[in-house]
Amino acid sequence: MNRLKKEQVKKYNAERQGLSLAQIQALNEKQAREERLHQLTRHIHVTWFPEEYDFMCDDWVDSQKRKQGIRFPDGNGHSRHQGSNPMSASYITDVNLRRSAFGIAPLEQNGLYHGNDSWLIAQREAVLRLAAEGPDVLDKPYGIDRIK
């Protein structure tokens, strides 16, 4: 067993210490629902917004293009680096049109996006899909009421 697994087992046992069998079962079910929601959200996000993961496939030249550029202040005393975007102009146009249809800001000059709007849209869709499976799929705190 590697170190990560040992820590996960410690955390699992600590969360359940002093609980009854019914409480442990309820906690296990709740965590399974949360994990299912997270996995579905991730799947929808990757499917609907693949451009936010394009940088992961950059070769050395593309990553250097994204890094080069001008530094812009972000208002918190730090500066953000705006490099160039290695994506083709037609791809950028298509992506920005699709993103605007969702009501999301276009990608930045370097082809990256530093917001969570797309994740919230994917999470909302995941909640709707899971809620359609039945009322027992989601707890009230993780239901549609919480995600706006």
Report on this structure.
With 148 residues, this protein is mainly alpha-helical. The protein is built from 5 helices and 2 strands. Strands 1-2 form a two-stranded antiparallel sheet. Helix 2 crosses helix 5. The longest helix is centred in the first third of the chain and has 28 residues. The radius of gyration is 20 Å and the shape is elongated. The C terminus is likely disordered.
Q: What would the principal axes of the Cα set say about the shape? A: elongated
Main beta sheet, described? 2 strands, antiparallel
What is the share of helical residues? 40-55%
Q: How are the strands of the biggest sheet laid out side by side?
A: 1-2
Report the structural category. Answer: mainly alpha
Overall residue-averaged pLDDT value: 79
Number of helical runs?
5
> Which ranges are low-confidence, i.e. pLDDT below 50, for 5 or more consecutive residues?
139-148
Rg calc = 20 Å
Topology pattern, helix = H, strand = E: HHHEEHH
Keywords:
55% helix; 148 residues; mainly alpha; 2 strands; elongated
Offer a quick outline of the entry:
It is built from 5 helices and 2 strands, in the order αααββαα. By secondary structure, the chain is mostly helical.
Strand and helix layout:
Layout: H1 3-16, H2 21-48, H3 60-67, E1 70-73, E2 79-82, H4 89-102, H5 117-133
Antiparallel strand pairs: 1-2
Helix pairs in contact: 2-5
